[in-house]
Design a protein that fits this description.
Layout (H helix, E strand, L loop, with lengths): L1 H80 L2 H28 L3 H13 L3 H9 L4 H11 L5 H19 L3 H33 L4 H61 L2
Length: about 280
């Protein structure tokens, strides 16, 4: 009886173990299948997200491109809407003003030199009594400072007073050359907003003409003339501001060069005085 009971218990345990193993395998297989399905779903989601991001990037790029093209197109449209006649005059004033500003900036930049080194070379030559060498140094150096020094060296044998008058006189000439065309730049600075205001007045006259013809003061009737008035004023002020910035920059360079010429003139007179004391006793 005990053997039968033990046998039945053994068979029950074996059956339970097999069932548990089968269930575990089925559970594991289901879990693997579920994970695979989740991975597939995640892959599809990632692919969809990447595709969506790429599409959004494309839309952003296209939108940016449209904005750039839109800005350029907007400027052209506003230029035409602001009455092509007056807007063309404002544009011409800007072009000529900028051309003069660029010319002055290039000229002044080329006029800047290392004046301290120039004076040291002149002093070294004069200490050796080489007046012609000092003149050659001045001739081979560009800029107003070198030109002033050369004029002084030409009259080194005529006395310090003569050299001083020559340096002062030629310094005035060089200062005038530095300020050349600045009056034209100021003219275009003044003209640009004036042309804009003139367009404003004409736009207002156009608006009142439209009101008179329509016999009505509705916004639609007034809008056309008012738009012309405002656009021409805006463009004129913008051009004047741009030219004013360049003009102030040019003035700062002119002032710096004038200061350099004055300091160099004083230093040159000191060098010539030492030369006279050394070689003309």
């Amino acid at each position: 009886m005990k053997k039968v009971f033990a046998f039945v218990a053994m068979m029950g345990l074996l059956t339970f173990g097999v069932n548990q193993t089968i269930n575990a395998q089925e559970t594991e297989a289901a879990a693997v299948e579920e994970v695979a399905q989740q991975d597939s779903t995640a892959g599809d989601s990632i692919a969809a997200a990447v595709s969506e991001d790429a599409q959004e990037d494309g839309e952003i790029t296209e939108e940016t491109k449209n904005k750039k093209e839109g800005l350029h197109k907007t400027i052209k449209v506003k230029f035409i809407e602001g009455s092509a006649g007056f807007m063309s005059l404002v544009a011409i004033a800007m072009i000529f003003g900028l051309a003069l500003c660029i010319e002055r900036i290039i000229f002044l930049s080329l006029s800047e030199i290392n004046s301290k080194k120039l004076l040291e070379d002149i002093q070294a030559a004069l200490e050796n009594g080489d007046v012609e060498g000092a003149k050659s140094i001045c001739r081979e150096t560009r800029g107003p400072v070198a030109s002033i020094c050369y004029q002084g060296m030409l009259r080194i044998d005529e006395g310090l007073d003569v050299v001083e008058r020559s340096v002062v006189s030629y310094g005035s000439v060089q200062a005038s050359n530095l300020e050349k065309n600045l009056s034209w730049i100021t003219l275009f600075i003044a003209m640009s907003p004036s042309l804009g205001f003139l367009g404003t007045v004409i736009g207002m006259v156009q608006a009142f003409d439209d009101i008179q013809k329509a016999g009505d003061i509705s916004p639609q009737v007034v809008a056309g003339g008012m738009k012309v008035a405002l656009i021409t004023t805006i463009f004129g002020i913008i051009v004047a501001l741009i030219l004013q910035v360049f003009y102030n920059y040019i003035l700062s360079k002119v002032e710096a060069l004038n200061t350099d010429m004055e300091d160099s003139s004083v230093s040159l007179l000191d060098i010539i005085m030492k030369y006279n004391l050394k070689f003309k006793k």
